[in-house]
Write a structure and sequence with these properties.
The protein is 18% helix and 47% strand. The protein has 66 residues and is of the alpha+beta class.
Length: 66
């Protein structure tokens, strides 16, 4: 099987507890409907361990691959 990959870079909200924007999940669901599956979510930390954003890594099977 061969895969294609993409990333979704989502800034977080909040200072003490990083929260993802509500529309982030709408976008992930839209991508899932297009055949993308979530492989990994990587939090990107900045000073004092605060999360600035989360990078979602997604993949889907290339059409015509075996």
């Amino acid at each position: 099987m061969k895969w294609e990959y993409r990333q979704l870079d989502v800034p977080t909200r909040g200072m003490l507890s990083a929260r993802l924007p509500d529309d982030c999940f709408d976008e992930l669901n839209r991508l899932a409907n297009e055949g993308w599956e979530l492989v990994q979510a990587v939090p990107v930390a900045v000073g004092a361990g605060m999360t600035e954003r989360v990078i979602f890594i997604l993949r889907r099977e290339l059409k015509g691959s075996v």
